[in-house]
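USER: Study each token:
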Amino acid sequence: MTAKVLQKFDGQLLLKILNSLKDPIWIIENNGNVLWVNQAADDFFSIGELIGQNVFKMEKQGLFSPSIARLVIEQKRFISTAQITQNNVQLLVSGDYIPDENGDIQYIVTHARQLSQAINQSSELGKVESILQLYKQQIRELILQKNQQNEDFYVGKSKAAQTISVWSQKIADIDTTILLNGETGVGKTALAYRIHQLSSRNNKPFIHLDCGAIPESLIESELFGYKKGAFTGANANGKLGLIAAADQGTIFLDEIGEFPLHLQSKLLQILQNKTYRMIGDNQVQQADVRIIAATNVNLMERVKEGAFRKDLFYRLNILPMKIPPLRERREDIIPLLNLYLGKFDQKYGHQHYLSKNLMDTLYNYSWEGNIRELENLMERLVITSAGPKIDIDDLPSDFPIQQSQQLLLQNVEEVSLPVYLDQIEKSVLIKTYNETNSTWKTAKKLGVSQSYIIRRLKKFNLRISEKELVEI
């Protein structure tokens, strides 16, 4: 039920919800200008148009004291305090801020309630803080959607994309370890950053460490740091590690399956006790970080091979999430093509469009490199295509298009629509069955029943021969 509600959630619905509340809600810019207020705030103060006014000036005019927005800006933290209006009404007012990408204050959100309505002030403070956390998370989500940054995975409408989008919102503020599974290029880094941005740690660092890209001999010093004189050739002043650099933020351990076995006990200590030791130091350091790990290998297989600790795997696997490859969520391919076409057209000052033949070809392509391969191809096409129309002929010479698929697409205008659609369906059936070697798995992958697949095989005169579909 929660997933369905969140899928339908948008900015207009958020504003309607906030307007339905009986408590005044304000959204204020970092310069003190009022960006938005709900209807309750307008009704309570009754001093004309609030939007566009400056709360610092309103405080000086005695309309209320103190200004909660001013206190939040000065102290850069959640504030809850009593406020008195010009009519001597006492309010319990709380405020918190939404950071920008640099961690600076971008917006302040405030909530007010008359003290006479607060039966138990301490419990009310907890409720108010919870409400503000919800507002903050939803506003962070709206800002992410508006900026369209690191949203590559989420532009599609596939069930997988929508499920993970909802899931990332749900677990963002659950401060525990997350393990992302998926092939290279599916968007694990983008998802990790999205979770960080939606979390309460979003105004703190996001540190990305690719465990497979750093030599094994350097990972320990990079991650944990070292004290002065810890080893020959070390920096004379010592070095803080990435864990210290990510203090109060998030550290993303990409390709965790490549993490050296002899260092896994130190990583386990961080996950269990939130403590670690720098190289050459006996003092225990505190690690206030959230860890998100990712892998493109089967970690349980690595455990069986003796290359990965079983206890570490179970500590990482608290909140696992598998990101399916692009070929298993084809509904997302066309939106992604359009996204990157627009992105690179804007970057290089061009204006292109994709032909239907090309879009059909790319839709049926296997995308072994997933989103990363798609992004690289679109950038190449935008740069190298001569005219505004990008067609099949513009594809690189080494792009693996099946000859039969090319012929089908080139002759699309020579046949009727039903015949063309049958040809497409037959091509998809053959390709999918030859990948799965099972009518049941083919049906599951294509989202239809097994009996439907059997009927289509008969219609297209296809039979199974040595685990492949062939035409009779």
